[in-house]
Design a protein that fits this description.
The protein has 305 residues and is α/β, with parallel strands linked by helices. It has two domains: 172 residues, P-loop containing nucleotide triphosphate hydrolases (Rossmann fold, 3-Layer(aba) Sandwich), CATH 3.40.50; 113 residues, GMP Synthetase, Chain A, domain 3, CATH 3.30.300. It is 33% helix and 22% strand. It contains nine helices and nine strands. The chain has a six-stranded mixed sheet with strand order 2-3-1-4-5-6, sandwiched between helices. α4 links the parallel β5 and β6. α6 runs antiparallel to α8. It starts with 9 loop residues before the first strand and ends in an 8-residue tail after the last helix.
Amino acid sequence: MSREETKVFKSGFVSIIGRPNVGKSTFLNHVIGQKIAIMSDKPQTTRNKVQGVLTSDDSQLIFIDTPGIHKPKHKLGDFMMKVAINTLKEVDLILFMVNAEEGFGRGEEFILEKFQGVKTPIFLVINKIDLIHPDKLLEVIQSYNEKFQFAEIIPISALAGNNIERVLEQIKRYVPEGPQYYPADQVTDHPERFIITELIREKALHLTHEEVPHSLAVVMEKLDRPENKDLIHVMATIIVERDSQKGIIIGKQGKMLKEIGKRARRDIENLLGSKVYLELWVKVQKDWRNKLGQLRDYGFRDDEY
């Protein structure tokens, strides 16, 4: 075979690191072309590693959307930080995503400290550039340039899709030749049960306020596909820490829970390509974020990371 006929295939794992709310999940969903990571304006939305797979003729890029780096306040927070930091050792490339509007602060400084000694190439991805003046962008780039030697600095708008293709082109330059790890039509390594519970949690996050979002988990109780029926039965339980939070989730005459179910069902039907009967329950588990047994029951297993 001639050199011209030899096709180089590249593959690699890319970790998306950053503070809460900088747009990591929005970026991942845009790259993959569908929702696999839930999005919210509330901090700490992403709790597990969410892997998104992008396959083309010449490459397969596996993106890992990590929990936002923050100071832990409970065992769940410890778990989330362990997940995020451990990915630095596992990947071929790191995308350090920052919010162009916020500038350099203590949170960014903490993350840069974690990069010390890391030999993996690190891109600085400056998100939300559509919200600032171009002159301000130059100041942001300069402030980070003085702090760390990045392999590449790329300004983007994940929401608008600006410059996403450039990020992908640069990633392909850096990742090694390698095999295709996943089938070409697979977009995530998470089972559909996980994604369904995340979609339910996303709707609850969007509709509730104050202390509820951080105290909320969703557990799948049943996913049933009866034969010869174009209807999937999904039963899930929303876990909260206090009776007052249960009241907020259920709402007056059950209106809040019905709205959560209505919005979640639409996304689940799009995901599964079928009609869905969604049944939601609410349960109080006091201080579950600080109990290792319950964290494991709800899918937060630190021994896997």
